[in-house]
TrEMBL record:
E.C. numbers: 2.7.9.1
Active site: H468, C846
Function recorded in the entry: Catalyzes the reversible phosphorylation of pyruvate and phosphate.
Name of the molecule in the record: Pyruvate, phosphate dikinase
PROSITE patterns (alphabetical): PEP_ENZYMES_2, PEP_ENZYMES_PHOS_SITE
Amino acid sequence: MTKWVYSFGDGKAEGSASDRNLLGGKGANLAEMSNLGLPVPPGFTITTELCTAYYDNNRQYPSELSGEVDAALEHVGSLVGAKFGDTANPLLVSVRSGARASMPGMMDTVLNLGLNDETIGALAKLSGDERFALDSYRRFIQMYSDVVLGVDHYHFEEILETFKEDNELTLDTELTADNWKEIISHYKAAVERELGQPFPQDVRDQLWGAISAVFGSWRNDRADTYRRLHNIPESWGTAVNVQAMVFGNMGDTSATGVAFTRDPSTGAKEFYGEFLINAQGEDVVAGIRTPQNLTKQSRIEAGSNDPSMEEAMPEVFGQLVDIYKKLEGHYRDMQDIEFTVQQGKLWMLQTRNGKRTAKAALKIACDMVDEGLITSNEAVLRVEPGSLDQLLHPTLDPDAPRNVIATGLPASPGAASGAVVFTAEHAVECMQEGKRVILVRIETSPEDIHGMHAAEGILTTRGGMTSHAAVVARGMGRPCVSGAGTVRVDYAGKTFTVGGETVKEGDVITIDGSKGQVILGEVPTLQPELSGDFAKLMVWADEARRMKVRTNAETPADAETARKFGAEGIGLCRTEHMFFEAERIVAVREMILADEHDKASRKVALDKILPMQRKDFADLFEIMSGLPVTIRLLDPPLHEFLPQTDAEMDEVAAASGIDAAKLKQRAHELHEFNPMLGHRGCRLGISYPEIYEMQARAIFEASIAAAEKTGEPVTPEIMIPLVAMKQELDVLKARIVAVAGEVEKETGKKLNYLVGTMIELPRAALQAAQIAETAEFFSFGTNDLTQTTYGISRDDAAMFLKNYQDQGLIEQDPFVSLDPDGVGELVKIGVERGRATRSDIKLGICGEHGGDPESVRFCESVGLDYVSCSPYRVPIARLAAAQSALQV
Ligand code: PEP
Ligand code: MG
């Protein structure tokens, strides 16, 4: 029989850290901390398998579950000396979700569960503090009603605000027990009014309501959005953790806090965190009260007069320090911990590997290698390849003037400029119109996630470094300044004011998330320096990886950037991109519009282009000196080159001397209904071989020139696009070989070169064995291969694929992350059949997937020789390739 419930507490547990998939991250770590003998309030975890079973079975629980929960609850009660629902000594619990991957702010939590009109008296008596008991009860009613019963929290906030106004009170702490009693009766009345039934008094109803709410929230919209953005499969499910309550709000010897064992923003080896005295659970993360520092040092640095935990509670702080060191040593990774102090006694509520910026991830990984805690290979595995993107972002030019209008916390590094918007929806609209925006909010909540994603940066006026805005922005790699307290936001007026300055919606501001600055107007940025820890980790990654990493580049600037980022050659030079420059496009149009049989006119046009191409290729060969360069012959969807306007038509007419009306007629003939599947790629080469001959000549002549200049031999790889059958390649290769012969004869030089093909059509993958008889290398063009395998247009798919994702039909856009089942199967077939014919055939990928970490993993698994990606993704691909090699 399946075991659904796992207990922990009192120095032991039924699970451990290795049961993460079953118990979720939180549950597994609570079990592990119990096993380590740390002070963890006892409790139990209902497994993720139960979540899956619940959904598979039409939201019904298996019949044996309730017995298992009862037994576990009984056990918890026996450990703390209390009983669930007891009117003399009631057990109170928290109910929290905990998925396999942490999902901050996404799932719901209920605290103080087990309180009702009966048990409240016992809590008052046992704590000796009626006011505290009532405060706990009203929090429970509000939280439970909001999360479980769907009565929005503003109902309760309004009641409280009105009460305070009527009674001329400002702070919650000024409210007496009698005040709370009155408020509680208003709260209960509000619930009854909203739901038509009273707030549940039966503690078992409360518990099952909360459990179902957690399982239900696994599929709420916020969780769906988060999962989509972070590629978390729906099938994983969440666990539910039920745990005996401990109270951080039992007076001034109680507190609650969160901490990181190292600085999550910079990676510095400093205990880092925030706490609040006499506060409960979510008060710290919610960003409602501004928390105090943990260490004296950080308090002084922050210029705060509120005592740090080190000063206010030295003894407990000492215990916390011992525990964090133990946890970091045990997990051998930076930990993010939550704790509560109840009347001087420390309780650990959570530990997990802490989220961190890419900069911090690098520093922590490198430092831990130096400390002997992890190996260099482990360090390579510690940094998420995609997160390197954060380091590749520009920073503000330190010499540029900055009109700093406010400062807040440096919540997430990087810098961004954009127009001010005040709502998530508006941010999304602007993004869709191609505008760059900064989202300005008093504080953010999970409902704002899509807007945070759409914005270039985020500014909040409230909340600490662990507030929602800060945590989520760091995860997304968006710069964020949080808690800029001097900024006053007026949502209705669509403005914010600070120090006499009024900033309106649409005005441009810049935020520096590394310094916490808000700056009026746009500030110039600088490109990142990739030295120090970055360079160190890349060396380790390069030692660990098997696949080479090349770049897709056609301009000298891109090639230089890529080489600086460690590219080991060019995997794709799209020559059609070289044809768009103003002085060339006319010649290109002349060539295309020349009469089908007018080879001579085409030749005249091609002769104008030849020297330009020769120079292009020579530049690339020089920049990539000593490294392979793959040049793909012309592959334009024809329509991109056709003149559109009369003026463009006249321009071509003037250059070619052909009558404009005749040209128009020719353009009309060339019009295609489906250019992506039309006269492009090698089909163009078959129709007009002189185009490819010109390009081959330019390549060969450039290779000779570059070799002479650099002293390094150049072996160009000439690539034919969109091949579907061996015959196409045979014809075109013969032409290229003939040109090589001519150039050799003219120059007296021996040429070394390879002729290969893109594999970007299903037929080519299937015919790989035959094609490899002619092709000396394959490069998988997974953009077109995805388009043609799915039969969906790569240019139009975004619109409807979004619906597919929303409806859960696909988890990932197959143009972003390679579809391993269909497209991947074709790649695999291509690899196997190609190698069967030509065992030393060079195999690579040059579709956009070459820079996507998950796709790179796939490439390793099928044994490709290299991946090729855009310049800024080269470091990401290097790291992803290393991780794949280490994990295979
Ligand atoms: C491809 O199809 O994957 C490819 C790299 O070529 P392009 O994107 O230029 O069509
Ligand atoms: Mg292609």
